[in-house]
């Protein structure tokens, strides 16, 4: 699984970091960053949940 955040869409709401803090971080960046790749299998459901709940549809998941 590959995940990416669209910097132009992210509004820094923090939902993704709350849902999957091992994968998403807002520390020191103007938008959410993916800090763990590839995504381990045990976190993939949470990443999908974060993508679904992102209010700006800024998280793209492939694979
Ligand atoms: S949930 Fe979406 S808009 Fe909110 S911080 Fe994460 S990527 Fe950005």
UniProtKB/TrEMBL annotation:
Under the heading Gene3D superfamilies, the entry gives: 3.30.70.20
Task: Determine if Transport is one of this entry's keywords.
Answer: yes
Transmembrane regions listed in the UniProt entry: none
UniProt keyword list = Electron transport, Iron, Iron-sulfur, Metal-binding, Transport
4Fe-4S ferredoxin-type domain span? 1-29
Q: Which residues form a coiled coil?
A: none
Tell me, what does this protein do in biology?
Ferredoxins are iron-sulfur proteins that transfer electrons in a wide variety of metabolic reactions.
Q: What is this protein called?
A: Ferredoxin
């Amino acid at each position: 699984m590959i995940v990416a955040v669209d910097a132009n869409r992210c509004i820094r709401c923090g939902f993704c970091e709350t849902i999957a803090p091992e994968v998403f971080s807002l520390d020191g960046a103007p938008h959410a960053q993916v800090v763990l790749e590839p995504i381990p299998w045990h976190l993939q459901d949470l990443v999908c949940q974060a993508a679904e709940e992102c209010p700006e549809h800024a998280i793209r998941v492939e694979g």
